[in-house]
Write a structure and sequence with these properties.
Elements (H helix, E strand, L loop, with lengths): L11 H17 L8 E3 L4 E4 L9 E4 L7 H15 L3 E5 L8 H7 L3 E12 L14 E5 L2 H14 L7 H12 L6 E8 L2 E9 L5 E8 L8 H15 L4 E6 L2 H10 L2 E11 L2
Parallel strand pairs: 3-4, 9-10
Antiparallel strand pairs: 1-2, 2-3, 4-11, 5-10, 5-11, 6-7, 7-8, 8-9
Helix pairs in contact: 4-5
Length: 272
């Protein structure tokens, strides 16, 4: 998709759609894995070939009130037949407004809500110097990704025993010629103290995987890596940044940087 190089004339409704489209594109990447499958249209759903609840799901569905239960049942059929657990994202494009409640009646659990935010990248605050000396590095190969991975896994609660599996998945998705992923890290000395990623789907720069080592928090490293990553996005020709957060403190942090709230996502999950 063509990158959007500025935010002039982009309405709030369009920004909400771009946030959802980027999240959807990021999730659909798992269909590129061996054994994966992608169904476009309405609804949009994907499988990865991996029986993990976060690697399969429905990213957008616009259903009618009259046939809502039937449409949900039909969407779930390929997952049910193969015993594939899944996540269903209910965002600003989803219809009807009662979809989340209906999913719960079909065996889904409401996992959490996420706030969708976006910004004109030319309007973000300037990065101020930190007291810490650090280096900012792109992750360009599997060896660098292996260094990047432990802090990401620790922050997002991924067991150490899954390290080889997660490295393989990210490696497959990150370094192909058509990959839309870009990963970055901050080091203090030789220690990785912060990580983050861009997904360049839907013509915008989506921020993901922000992690800061606990003992280095409150030093401005989260702000630093976010702004440095978006500097890279601007160099690549992107003018709009998007992200999602579940944490009030992060919401305030991103607002101070120049991001505004445009939508909300409900995250629903179920197994078999």
């Amino acid at each position: 998709m063509q990158k959007i190089n500025n935010a002039i004339g982009v309405s709030s409704i369009e920004l909400a759609k771009l946030i959802e489209d980027n999240l959807s594109a990021k999730s659909q990447d798992f269909a590129k894995l061996t054994g994966g499958q992608l169904h476009t249209g309405n609804p949009i759903w994907f499988t990865s070939g991996i029986r993990n609840i976060g690697y399969n799901g429905v990213t957008c569905a616009r259903f009618s009130n009259e046939q809502l239960d039937l449409q949900i049942t039909n969407t779930l059929e390929p997952f049910r037949q193969n015993g594939i657990p899944l996540t269903w994202w209910v965002g600003p494009l989803s219809q009807p407004g009662t979809l989340g409640k209906a999913l719960q009646s079909h065996g889904f659990t409401h996992n959490r809500d996420m706030i969708g935010m976006a910004a004109d990248l030319t309007q973000l605050i300037r990065l101020t110097p930190l007291d810490l000396e650090y280096t900012f590095e792109p992750v360009n190969d599997l060896a660098a990704l292996e260094v990047w991975m432990p802090l990401f896994m620790e922050t997002f609660g991924i067991p150490v025993s899954d390290a080889s599996f997660v490295l393989d998945v990210f490696g497959q998705l990150s370094f192909s010629p058509d990959s839309e992923w870009r990963h970055y890290l901050l080091r203090v000395g030789s220690e990785v103290v912060a990580t983050g990623s861009l997904h360049l789907g839907a013509g915008v720069a989506g921020l993901y995987n922000i992690a800061t080592r606990p003992e280095y928090r409150q030093n401005g490293l989260g702000t630093a890596i976010t702004l440095l990553i978006y500097e890279q996005a601007k160099k690549l020709g992107y003018g709009i940044g998007t992200l999602q957060t579940t944490y009030p403190n992060a919401l305030r942090l991103y607002h101070r940087m120049g991001f505004e709230v445009y939508c909300k996502f409900g995250i629903y999950q179920r197994g078999w």
